TrEMBL record:
Requisite cofactors: heme
Membrane topology: Single-pass membrane protein
Signal sequence region: 1-17
Keyword Heme: yes
Protein's name according to its UniProt entry: Cytochrome P450
Family affiliation: Belongs to the cytochrome P450 family.
Source organism (scientific name): Solanum commersonii (Commerson's wild potato)
Gene3D superfamilies on file: Cytochrome P450 (1.10.630.10)
Length: 969
């Protein structure tokens, strides 16, 4: 009885051991000899160690090698992302820094965060993580950067440009970084940039101590430096002296800071740590770690990228183009949000650090025996090193062009930064020890790049490729000697040189193109589309009497520039907000700046909640199953003709009112009756649309001033809408008071906004915007897709096949089922490509500019991107652009293709991208799936192409009259 557990344990142990044995991969590595190991090969290759290791790793089947040399631990070096993930995350606890590593840096870094493991690391990590996450630190960093860059670095470079003096840019950047990190970390200023011929004691001692520690790590035989330390000789004696001077300087700063804290609080890290009550020695060791990370890594990365820009002028030009598009003033300091927008600069930094990582490798020491994912056996005490320099040069990771500098590899087709696994690109480490200062580092590096490149030209004195040397952080051997030149081409001259002639309709003095506009007023969309397709840039200029100079574009590059790259220069603008202002007030769709930003954050939070999604699906089930489907069943029985467009608009209004207002207008209950709110809403929408399409704006403005005709009616209709919504708000507020409100937080949007404490008028304007977006856009899209299915039976059959394969009964649909319906989504996308619910969207330039296609934009111009025309451009969609082909949205694996929102801006893009996109697709799929699996829809009149009418949202002229039939089976 007692032997059974023992035998079971032995068998289990043997099975585990056998598994370990079978998993082993044979180890590849340099030639090794008894006792010496690979010391001979190591010595031969000591001047090209990085490239030697890289070659060995690329030849290894697993991208992992074993290096054994006399006097050093058994060392495994890997460039395999699976191994890196395993070390840094999956089995993190087994791969600490380890005593051999902490011995190398211990005399200098002490018990600082970069040189400890276990509980001591965990405690410091929590402390540092808290401090690095504060907005106040971020603001302090940006303020410090502005001060050091604008008052020291730029003046120094301008002076060098004037004098023609040669500068060691690497030294300048290291001095700049030390000044900056000392101000951020210590709240003190070493003034390294003030005199390039002088090296402060702290800096000199810091550099010497760093170098000595790096030489320890690269020593062929570790016993040598350990013996010298024990005897206090040579380099070890100097290291001890330099560390003492560094400690003395920092200790003095700490004492002064403690005295200063009594009187005032500082924004720097040292003040924060001391205020928190941490001991002096702990604080000293932590800030020394921050100094080494914050100075050497950023200056190294900047040095190599500046060198790369001197050999890749096309890339440098793109960098400057992005910088000037976001901040084009030579004297305006950069803001955090502007720096965050500079995606191409981030891509360039990533690509530079891929090839020239500031830290070439990082070592751990195995706490116990293990096996890496590639089968490599690890013994307790082994050094296991992941090799960033080599990983950046592995064909298996980066492809055949791995040795080329290509920032575009970091950008997706939408112009966004790709998300790359940190285990494939561990420049900022990964897992629990991922770099806390990554955002700070990118902020600093982008600030320097943007400030320098927009003002100055850098030219190396020598053309030879520099030598990359890894110490604690990498540097360029012999420095980076350059001459600085001013950029003499002014921004205005650049604008003039870049301008291209603008295509457009015939235009006459005073009248502009008013005659052509009037002639084509009944086919405005197709006229604009024709003009755009004939334009070499897919951009046209429309100038007509009584309206702002208008640029219309169907060029995706221009759309991306307006909606993202230079978003700040293209607000809605006063001319647009005037048109809709009487109706939408200060709702989210009709405001800019801080008011838009505040409402966007509020709405974004509400739209991201699972509770709202659940409430939407529940509401859809209720309205579809209890109203829409019974109405269609009745129509099928009676043979009655239905205007399906009207039915869908009523359905959408019922649904959006329940979701937005928590009230029910019952529009579907009686198709012969139009509720006051709906009628007034429609009339107000129509009147605003006619304002926007008026040939001469002065007419409607005069009528409004005199309260005449259509403007008088608009005023009356808006008043009725406001009256209805105000009444609903008051009732809702009373209900919240009576029912204590808590359970209503997870219901309609109105309840959520009122419980959050927002004012009535703000709430009213927001929900009116939601009503317009949620009713008209979805009903328009559904109307056109239902019409298209009547002419494309093969597409309809494929839709029904997908619906029934996912939900083959009459039961109501759930969110996950709807999400699975990829072909339905493709059909919706294709329908909205040809018949977009919103045909155009206009912005108004805040200042002079030039679009990417060379079109000159003047301050105050209306700049319109034209979704209807974009869906019909051969340059975007090919020769079959006018055909309805949902398959163009499906890839070879049956998944939805990711299409740039700047090529297909139906849901807008950039910061103003539609928050309700998921809700809209959920609603439209629910209706399509519920109707198509039950009914056949047949138009009463076989019209080849119904008339597409653009108002605020598009509709089908004359409605969509159909008969409904039950689907057989």
């Amino acid at each position: 009885m007692f032997l059974s557990p023992f035998i079971f344990f032995i068998l289990g142990f043997l099975t585990h051991s056998l598994k370990l044995h079978l998993k082993f991969s044979p180890m590849y590595g340099p030639s090794s000899y008894p006792i010496l190991g690979c010391l001979i090969s190591f010595y031969k290759n000591r001047h090209q160690l990085l490239d030697w290791y890289t070659q060995l790793l690329s030849e290894s089947p697993t991208q992992t090698i074993l290096v054994q040399r006399f006097g050093a631990p058994r060392t495994i070096i890997t460039a395999n992302p699976n191994n890196v993930e395993y070390m840094l995350k999956t089995n993190f606890i087994n791969y600490p820094k380890g005593k051999p590593f902490t011995d190398i840096l211990g005399d200098f870094l002490g018990h600082g965060i970069f040189n400890v493991d276990g509980e001591l690391w965990s405690a410091q990590r929590k402390l540092a993580s808290h401090e690095f996450s504060t907005n106040s630190l971020r603001e302090f960093v940006v303020k410090t950067l502005e001060e050091v860059v604008e008052n020291r670095l730029i003046p120094l470079l301008i002076q060098a440009a004037k004098s023609g003096k040669v500068l060691d840019l690497q030294d300048v950047l290291r001095r700049f970084a030390f000044d900056t990190i000392c101000k951020v970390s210590l709240g003190t200023d070493p003034h390294c940039l003030d005199d390039l011929s002088h090296v402060p004691v702290l800096v000199e001692s810091f550099d010497n101590a760093s170098l000595a520690c790096a030489m320890r790590g690269m020593a062929p035989v570790y016993a040598i430096w350990k013996s010298k330390r024990a005897l206090n000789l040579g380099s070890e004696k100097k290291l001890k002296e330099n560390v003492k001077r560094v400690h003395c300087c920092i200790d003095k700063i700490i004492e002064e800071k403690k005295q200063k804290i009594v009187n005032e609080n500082g924004g720097d890290l040292l003040s924060r740590l001391l205020i928190a009550g941490h001991e002096d020695e702990v604080v000293r060791d932590m800030v020394i770690s921050f100094l080494i990370a914050g100075r050497d890594t950023t200056s190294s990365a900047l040095t190599w990228l500046f060198w790369l820009t001197t050999n890749h002028h096309d890339i440098k030009d793109k960098m400057i183009k992005e910088i000037t598009s976001i901040n084009n003033g030579d004297h305006k300091a950069l803001e955090f949000d502007e720096l965050k927008e500079m995606k191409y600069l981030a891509a360039c930094l990533n690509e530079s650090m891929r090839l020239y990582p500031p830290v070439a490798w990082d070592s751990k020491h195995a706490a116990k025996d293990d096996i890496l994912p590639d089968g490599t056996r690890v013994q307790k005490g082994n050094r296991v090193t992941y090799f960033q320099y080599g990983m950046g040069r592995m064909e298996e990771i980066w492809g055949k062009d791995r040795l080329e500098f290509k920032p575009e590899r970091w950008m997706d087709e939408n112009g966004e930064l790709k998300i790359v696994s940190p285990f494939k690109y561990p420049v900022f480490q990964a897992g629990p020890r991922v770099c806390l200062g990554k955002e700070m580092a990118f902020t600093q590096m982008k600030y320097v790049l943007a400030s320098v490149l927009r003002r100055l030209e850098i030219k190396p004195v020598k053309v030879e490729k520099p030598v990359f040397v890894p110490l604690l952080t990498a540097h360029m051997v012999g420095g980076f000697n350059v001459r600085i030149h001013r950029r003499f081409l002014t921004h205005s001259l650049k604008l003039h040189l870049k301008c291209t002639p603008i295509y457009g309709p015939s235009s006459y003095p005073i009248l502009g193109c008013l005659i052509s506009f009037y002639k084509n007023r009944h086919r405005l969309l197709d006229w604009y589309t024709q003009l755009l397709s004939e334009s070499p840039t897919q951009t046209i200029l429309v100038q007509r009497f009584g309206a702002p100079r208008t640029i219309i574009t169907a060029n995706p590059d221009n759309v991306e520039y307006m909606l993202k790259t230079n978003f700040i220069n293209y607000p809605k603008g006063k001319p647009f907000t005037d048109i809709l202002g009487d109706f939408l007030g200060r709702g989210i769709f009709n405001v800019d700046g801080e008011l838009w930003s505040a409402q966007r954050k509020l709405a974004s939070h509400e739209f991201s909640t699972n509770s709202l999604r659940e409430f939407v699906v529940k509401t859809l089930e209720e309205v579809v199953e209890n109203r829409l489907i019974p109405l269609l069943i009745q129509a099928a029985k009676s043979g009655k003709v239905l205007d399906l467009q009207d039915v869908l608009r009523r359905f959408a209004f019922d649904t959006i009112c329940k979701v937005s207002l928590g009230t029910d207008p019952h529009c579907l209950d009686d198709l012969s009756h139009v509720p006051v709110l709906v009628e007034s809403f429609d009339n107000a929408s129509l009147a605003c649309a006619m304002r926007g399409m008026a040939p001469v704006y002065a007419i409607w403005k005069s009528k409004r001033a005199l309260n005449l005709g259509s403007e008088k009616k608009l005023k009356e209709n808006v008043k009725r809408v406001h009256c209805c919504i105000d009444k609903i708000i008051e009732e809702k507020k009373q209900k919240i008071v009576n029912e204590n409100g808590d359970h209503m937080k997870n219901t309609d949007l109105l309840s959520r906004l009122l419980i959050a404490g927002h004012e009535n008028e703000v709430v009213r304007d927001m929900v009116i915007s939601f009503l317009m977006a949620g009713r008209d856009t979805t009903s328009s899209a559904l109307t056109w897709l239902f019409w298209l299915t009547t002419n494309h039976r093969d597409v309809k059959d494929e839709m029904i096949k997908e619906i029934t394969s996912i939900n083959n009964g009459d039961k109501s649909l759930d969110f996950d089922e709807l999400k699975e319906m990829k072909y339905l989504a493709a059909c919706l996308n294709e329908s909205m490509r040809l018949y977009p619910p919103v045909v155009w969207d206009s912005k108004h330039a805040a200042k002079d500019d030039i679009l990417p296609d060379g079109t000159r934009v003047q301050k105050g111009n209306r700049v319109t991107y034209f979704q209807y025309g974009m869906g019909r451009m051969e340059e975007i969609w090919g020769k079959d652009r006018l055909e309805f082909k949902p398959d163009r949205w499906i890839d070879e694996n049956g998944a939805l293709k990711i299409v740039s929102p700047y090529k297909y801006p139906v849901f807008q893009a950039g910061p103003r991208v539609c928050l309700g996109k998921e809700m809209a697709f959920t609603q439209m799929k629910y209706v399509l799936a519920s109707v198509l699996r039950r009914f056949e829809i047949k138009p009463v009149v076989d019209v080849e192409n119904p008339v597409f009418v653009p108002l605020l949202t598009a509709h089908m002229a004359g409605g969509f009259n159909v008969r409904i039939y039950h689907r057989d089976g």
